[in-house]
Design goal:
The chain is of the alpha+beta class. It contains 2 helices and 9 strands. Pfam families: LPMO_10.
Length: about 200
Amino acid sequence: MRRKISSALLGLGIAAVSVLATTSSAQGHGYVDSPISRQQLCGKGTVTGCGQIVWEPQSVEGPKGFPGSGPADGAICSGGNGRFSELDNPRGGAWPATQLSSGQSHTFTWRLTARHNTADFRYYITKDGYDPTKRLTRADLEPQPFLTVPFGGVQPNETVSHSGTLPRKSGKHLIVGVWSVSNTGNAFYACSDVRF
């Protein structure tokens, strides 16, 4: 009887370790919650047909150095991660958009499921004349971020909020949030569809 119980407990222990080992990489990292990002819209079920991002909205990780390097044009919203390519699909311009006021202050919020030492958070916005029915390229974005929040290598809290003034824009646009990790070669990407 003791041998059966010991074997059962050992089996449960191995199963628990296996689950932890296979899910540690899927615990992910972070996403933009305000204005709501495409991956969060998928994670909440607001948008369907999103593929694997539904289970990992926090995992849009790709090479850092954007816009000089990083994900290729047309794959910016997925961070160049093919598993999440549905985020790059413009869906005919039908992604739900957060209503924002041009030229006003906005508080940007990231939810972090794994905190990393951080270089900075940067926000880019599309140029006037942006076509939301096409995949995003660097040529669609203003060349400089409209907001940069330096972090100096500090590890942020699980919720990170910072305020900045929105550019003067009208109509539908896309904001690309980039969270650059300071001690790895990667960054996290989040695309938020907005309407001014």
